[in-house]
Amino acid sequence: RNTAAARVTCQVRLATGDRLQTIGVALAGNVFVLKLPGNTELSIPADQVTALDFSLGKVRYLSQLEPREKNTVPMFDLKREVEFDRSLFGTPLTLGGKVYTRGLGIFPQTRIRYRLAGEFSRFRAVAGIDDAAPRLKTSVHCTILGDGKPLFDAEIAPADAPREIDLDVSGVRDFEVFVDFGADHLPIGDFLDLADAKLTK
Predict the structure, then answer these.
(1) What is d(CA 6, CA 23) in angstroms, rounded to the nearest whole number?
(2) Are 120 and 188 in the same domain?
(3) Span 59-79, pLDDT tens digits
């Protein structure tokens, strides 16, 4: 029912990979008692629950949104431009040894634009060259804009530690990510990850 769905407050992630939408969660000893839409209850051993996500409706990952525009300038007939929830290698997004389930893998000279309608307040992500890329002396240039104004502008190299990004996007309607070649202008090893990229209300 729509009335039940409207009351969903938590997504429960299980060790099996399943995700359950719940309207109530309680811990009784070593068992989670989940109240599901429709007022049914389900008991799950605590060791089978990997995460409780109470951010439903407040957080949107970029990989969940449909870009308003997505284009790239191909190099050497490569079709790479952007991958969603995986690196440009087709592998999990990995920065500094940490694996991320959400995010974007972006090749240089790629522009991605989103229409936000001013409903979000912050953008957060972790930026870096994917661990699977060769450790060369190359770099990419990443620019993030809100309504045409630069909010983040940085050169990112394989040797750099993953960089935390936290931007104020209050009132922003047009959100853009542009990745270009770095100062070296070489398309080698330039596999940028914008990991855990999300917008919050």
Answers:
(1) 9
(2) yes
(3) 889 998 999 998 877 655 555
